[in-house]
Structure formats: C-alpha cells, structure tokens
Amino acid sequence: MTTDTPDTPDALHTLHGGVRVLRCAPDGPPLDGEEAALDLIGDAFGQEAELVVVPVQRVGAELFRLRSGVAGAVVQKFATYRLGLAVVGDISGHVADSTALRDFVREANQGDQLWFVADEEELEERLTR
Length: 129
Fold this sequence. Notes:
By secondary structure, the protein is α/β, with parallel strands linked by helices. It contains five helices and six strands; from the N terminus they run βββαβαβααβα. The chain has helices spanning 34-46, 70-80, 92-96, 99-110, 120-128, and strands at residues 2-3, 10-15, 19-24, 51-55, 84-88, 114-117. The chain has a six-stranded mixed sheet with strand order 1-2-3-4-5-6, with helices on both faces. A hairpin with a 3-residue loop joins strand 2 and strand 3.
C-alpha cells in the first residue's frame, strides 16, 4: 500500500492495481444516513477516490437494522455516484441477531458496490481479485 497524503482523519491511499481509497478514521462522524453518505461521497470525489473504507465503529447502528431503511438509502447513494463502499471490522454480533442482515451481507459481498470485510487483509484480498 502506498500513501498519497499524510495520515489525516480521513486519508487517501492507493491500494492494489492503483485503486484510490478514501480510508475513514474510526473516530469521525458516523455513517448513519443519506446526509452522512453524501458527505463521504463529496470527500471521496474531492480526492478522486474510487472506494470509501469505513471502520465498523464509525457505522451507525441503524445501518445494521435493515427495517430502518438506512442501509438501502446509503447503498443507493453510493451506487448513484458509482463509488464503492467497504465496511471493515467485526459485524458478527449484528449478523447473529438478524438472518435478514446475514443474507444482505452475503449478497453485498458477492458484488462490487458494497463489501463487509473483517479486516484490512481481507479488503486487500478483495481488491486483488
């Protein structure tokens, strides 16, 4: 991995194959709805990123409650702007509580728009495929 900018709260990195990634800091504003998604999308566009990587601790709990509609709204915003989103970290507790979420995560991980990965190594593996 090469770093294009110094480590800042949300920093741009270039990963395998030249993929430009906006890596979000764990302590930033939560990804908890459309407005937060648009803020990240704006930041990503400003840095010409292709993928936004959000640590799980920065994801609002409502995103994991599919009935809330937050996950669908966030994913739709990223899809509209043709920008990938990866959530990095342990979501096993959320998945254990919801078969619908487990199915959603499995479906998402089969595509190219949204990934749920356990750690940075799994993210880099996905990018090398």
